[in-house]
Amino acid sequence: MLPNLGAISRIPHVAHNLLNDTFLRALLRQPTEYTPIWLMRQAGRYLPEYNATRSRAGSFLGLAKNPDYATEVTLQPLERYPLDAAILFSDILTIPDAMGLGLSFQAGEGPKFAHPVRTEEDVARLAVPDIGATLGYVTDAVREIRRALTNAEGRQRVPLIGFSGSPWTLACYMVEGGGSDDFRTVKSMLYARPDLMQRILEVNAQAVAAYLNAQIEAGAQAVMIFDTWGGALADGAYQRFSLAWIARVVAQLKREHDGERVPVITFTKGGGLWLDEIANTGVDAVGLDWTVNLGRARELAGDRVALQGNLDPTVLFASPAAIREQARAVLDSFGAHSGHVFNLGHGISQFTPPENVAELVDEVHRYSRTIRAVGA
After folding, report:
1. Please, which residues have CB within 8 angstroms of residue 234's CB and are 6 or more apart in sequence?
2. Which residues are the active-site residues?
3. What is the per-residue pLDDT for 12?
4. 255 is in an annotated binding site
5. Is residue 296 part of a domain?
6. Which keywords does this Swiss-Prot/TrEMBL entry list (predicted)?
7. Count of domains for the chain
8. Tens digits of per-residue pLDDT, 49-85?
9. d(CA 275, CA 265)
């Protein structure tokens, strides 16, 4: 049974120098003139300018580990669309890479680890990396992005989101050695040797908390925990091997920096059935995938958390009229209430036509203003 941390004291102050603070206010369930929108993977392969920058960098890791390139691609979607937040360009696997597991990306195959964690000896060797020594390129990128978002008068365009994978999701990649269709190796360890899995998760939780705190200290104004593979777990196993460790991370995070509130979002893909429990971990907002009815989720969550989501990413392959219709359906489901950040139910597909994203962003901003005008 997880402790109910939802009643932690809230610091209502958001960054005073922001030209657009709508995203942060929505996360804190404060009134906004419209529903803010950003997209998971908004800087990525669907944008031709991203592909051009990645080509110059030579590889994905060459892109992610160079603060100049990371800054460039972080800002690219903001130049195209009036999005309400920027998200640090990086990867969820930076922590296990910093642990020395030998991360590489093969074309068409996704991430691979040269040294997966499979044996007692492998687990015993795991240690929390020195964040400054091994992941300084990430915090350097956070600082550089903040500078790039700030104009000559010291006003910042939009807030910057930092992020990490969850302890469980990182463990999936670390044990499987890459992506997986059935998670056979990591789930076999979970059931056969839960002691080893607990040790991996303990190290990961300490590392994730330290990593997110370093991003906050460098200038991230909100942070997100991506529990991409939490939904692969059975009920009971999810609470023990994923959610409990997310709560452990959240309890260690800096929730205020420079006198300003730093909201925390968590997203478990396939985790809608556990919304009530996720909302009790102490996070400020819960991300939802497209299988969840947003109106019912709002009623269940009550005033504990804001909600983020939850358009099916494949809607963006439809006609402009259909995209706008589906955007309105999501907004209508949530209603004219505070505490909604519009997003996709998962990351944007690399095959998405960029012009369709423009239709979505425009409709979310336009229609949500009308909802609030009627509800006022």
Report:
1. none
2. 41, 45, 54, 91, 173
3. 52
4. no
5. yes
6. Cytoplasm, Decarboxylase, Lyase, Porphyrin biosynthesis
7. 1
8. 999 999 999 989 999 999 999 999 999 999 999 999 9
9. 13
**14 assigned to some structural domain:** no
Q: Is 44 annotated as a binding residue?
A: yes
Q: Indicate the residue type of 128.
A: V
CA distances in angstroms from 269 to 7, 102, 116, 176, 229, listed in the order given: 25, 26, 24, 19, 6
Residue 35 marked in a binding site: no
Closest CA to 329 of 295, 354, 302: 295
| CATH code, domain with 358 | 3.20.20.210
pTM score, whole prediction? 0.94
Q: How far apart are CA 143 and CA 162, in angstroms?
A: 11
Over the stretch 299-316, which tens digit does the pLDDT of each residue have?
999 999 999 999 999 999
- As a whole number, mean pLDDT of residues 356-369 equals 98
Is 126 part of a structural domain of the chain?
A: yes
With a CB cutoff of 8 Å and minimum separation 6, the contacts of 364 are: 34, 35, 37, 327, 331, 342
Q: In which domain, by residue range, is 196 found?
A: 22-375
The edge-to-edge listing of strands for the beta sheet with 285-287 is: 86-87, 160-165, 222-227, 264-268, 285-287, 306-308, 340-341
CA dihedral 119, 125, 131, 137 (to 10 degrees): -60
Residue 45 marked as a ligand binder: yes
